[in-house]
């Protein structure tokens, strides 16, 4: 699912408009031992009236575990009237400003987060931990007891497999006048896997190269450029998405890159877990039409993976939506094209 997280810094929000762009929202309830976010009540009531799924985060200021529990008790006080509508967990948020006020060691910092989460878990709330790569690799100890909300502003989660991924802090959506944090929620689903692999079929270039797998696409168009015989193709995606793009524009679709072997993918600098290696990704050009036009139409088909480059469009059959624009290596995640 696609979502955002907000606080009073995002101003007055038009939740009816926001609902058109996202599935869920994580709302800051407050911070420290005694402060409710100024827009918390407006935000949670406004989001609830639209039917958005709702989660909570609390910015922790604590010198020790005793103060961490006081943070948790204040959080509980703020959200107790909304317990039934909080379905996306309560997230513990410790960041650089938390350390600036209360410098900690790795061990004490970890204990504070655990104390906060343990208290709320004991009160019947599902808890989780918000963190970035810096904290995960050097400033936190073992927090695996609680799900991870990863803050990593890039086009890749790396080797992390979070419950939720905050992939941008500069999103723009209708209904919010400021930049807003953008998130993808995975829950218990393995984030780096795809359920679409059942649609992937193996072909032989020598045996099947001239075989059409849809009205306008044949096997040879998806071969790896290293000349290998084996070709993997997500045939359902070709039937339902690529053919639809071809029919809509009424123009030839060139597949610049389809299946890639692991060695060829490495040679061209592809992502380590590229969908091209599974036969699930396709870099395409539609004759006479711009990448922006193609990306917008792919979006209307609910293609989950779309990356608009300057001269072509990457589409793939991943299960969780990821839309972005790559401008000469600068990647911007897009809520829409």
Query: What is the name of the CATH topology of the largest domain?
Result: TIM Barrel
Oligomer: single chain
Major sheet details: 8 strands, mixed, barrel
Secondary-structure content class: alpha/beta
Which consecutive residue ranges, at least 5 long each, have pLDDT under 50?
A: 189-198
Number of helices: 10
CATH homologous superfamily classification of the largest domain: Glycosidases
Q: What portion of residues is helical?
A: 25-40%
Q: How many distinct domains?
A: 2
CATH architectural category of the largest domain = Alpha-Beta Barrel
CATH class of the largest domain: Alpha Beta
Mean pLDDT: 92
Radius of gyration: 23 Å
How would you describe this structure to a colleague?
It is built from 10 helices and 17 strands. By secondary structure, it is of the alpha/beta class. The chain has 2 domains: 2-185, TIM Barrel; 195-333, Muramoyl-pentapeptide Carboxypeptidase, domain 2. Strands 1-2-4-5-6-7-8-9 form an 8-stranded mixed beta barrel, surrounded by 4 helices. The two termini are 18 Å apart.
